[in-house]
């Protein structure tokens, strides 16, 4: 209802009548209620953010982000696992056969198509995050149907380039950012 | 109780805060169908299990250290050095299993006698909310001892969220508080594991409120017609529930003292190692059917969605079951399919316990399809085509005749 004041007020009846159930009419007070409610809701949503964000990785966790790995002790055909940000990173010294096999695979056979060249800096060193892209287990080396890794949790097979070939995992094993700081040392992260 | 209320002070107090009349109304004079069978014991048993978990849990929390470097050793210290610590921890670990056994039977009772149908749909929903909260609580509790199964269970289950497109990865890191399951994860899981059981208590209150508002269903599944259909809760059901509690405690004690690790997994006595996954990881037995559904679908997102749907479909049950008859006693066709569903769940359980190889894979796929077939196709059709047996006139009549 437009205009100021309700019928009752104009007729000089007590304002109480406004509160009678079922006899409600729109007033300026309704507008104030809605406006107050809206401001409170926005305020509450803003105040909620710190309570949500506190669960994200903290500054000290983010700070632990890079490590150096000495490659010289890793013999040909072997692999070491290092801990980077709480995750296993596989560093594999690949043989000629490993490399040839990975490079011979046609791309259309791959679920997550990527050439072996795109996955390495130096062909004999394959560096990747050792976490199955299905649900996060650590795959076992030298197992599975593709001369690479096999994840025991739900049966994902990865090839000698760490690419997904069979099983429920959707993606290839991830390649972390890394660089060679000299011939036999890399920095991961 | 009545005698108590004759006491002057008690009357004075009750007049100001009517706790006694309230207890009298809800626990003593409360009208209960006169024909309830032993399937109706499991509600009070679930309450008992919840109290046991809270009491033992609070005591364990006095000795437990929620830190990735110390949690495993603090649990071993509870087992070896704390007075009766072994008993308290075994009570808590086996108590969780018994809680699920009781709740699963309680739910099966509801499925068989149609307790989810009008006017008890909200009561049913609240029960399912309790189930989800219990699952979250038990999952986070299992992480606390920080053994190999704790760590890898936490990894696999939190990674389920990574299946969500785009926002999946950030959500998982948010849950972890890091780039992998670690100390931050353990700390928050401890905090939430402490909190959630009390949230369960709150939902239980709502569950009972809804129950007392519409009253219990009964084995005949028919509506009550008058006071002759009821007996008072006390002494009839207080004594029956107490008897049930005795049987429950005997079975509980048998496991506690003779097979305390029967339902556990030996790998959880190996400290967590973030670099090595155990060869065969399995969740606790009460999650196995859902885990089998997850693995049955050869697609990451699909598996996660199917697992979620397997529980959420139960929320729709009051509308998927098109029959107006509640109790399976009068539903000759439904009755068979009820038992078939239970068999299907047991099959799924075995599939979940075994590695996803060989014939377990197709078997879990068939069982998963059947699970959804039951709710989405069979239940609506049976309701339409089944010819129910004649219902008795009232609850009281067959009881009083016998
Ligand atoms: C819904 C009720 C609850 C369930 C289903 C539950 C379940 C569990 C489970 C499955 C474990 C792992 C047991 C093991 O293998 O060691 C656990 C551990 C633990 N829970 Fe609970 N719990 C509940 C309530 C509570 C409460 C209320 C508290 C404390 C206030 C608590 C404190 C603890 C502690 C300190 C541990 C670690 C010690 C241990 O592993 O034995 N729990 N819980
Ligand atoms: S986590 Fe590797 S297959 Fe599921």
Properties at a glance:
heterodimer; A: 189 residues; alpha+beta; four-stranded antiparallel beta sheet; three-stranded antiparallel beta sheet; 4 helices; B: 402 residues; mainly alpha; Cytochrome Bc1 Complex, Chain C; Helix Hairpins; two-stranded antiparallel ribbon; 17 helices; 2 strands; 66% helix; binds protoporphyrin IX containing FE; binds FE2/S2 (inorganic) cluster
Describe the overall structure.
The complex is a heterodimer of chains A (189) and B (402). By secondary structure, chain A is α+β, with helices and mostly antiparallel strands. In chain A, 23% of the residues lie in helices and 24% in strands. Chain A is built from 4 helices and 10 strands; from the N terminus they run H-H-H-E-E-E-H-E-E-E-E-E-E-E. In chain A, strands 5-6-7-8 form a 4-stranded antiparallel sheet, with no helix packed on it. In chain A, 27% of the residues are buried. The model of chain A has no long low-confidence stretch (mean pLDDT 87). By secondary structure, chain B is mostly helical. Chain B folds into 2 domains: 38-281, Up-down Bundle (Cytochrome Bc1 Complex, Chain C), CATH 1.20.810.10; 284-402, Orthogonal Bundle (Helix Hairpins). In chain B, strands 1-2 form a two-stranded antiparallel sheet. The longest helix of chain B is centred in the middle third of the chain and has 32 residues, at 183-214. The mean pLDDT of chain B is 95. Classes of the chains: A alpha+beta (189), B mainly alpha (402). At the A-B interface, loops of A face helix 8 and helix 9 of B. The site of FE2/S2 (inorganic) cluster (FES) has 13 residues of chain A, from loops.
Instruction: State the total count of DSSP E strands of chain A.
Output: 10
How many β-strands of chain B, per DSSP?
2
β content of chain B, as a range? Answer: under 5%
The backbone outline of chain B, from C-alpha atoms, is: globular
Which pair has the most extensive contact? A-B, 28 and 35 residues
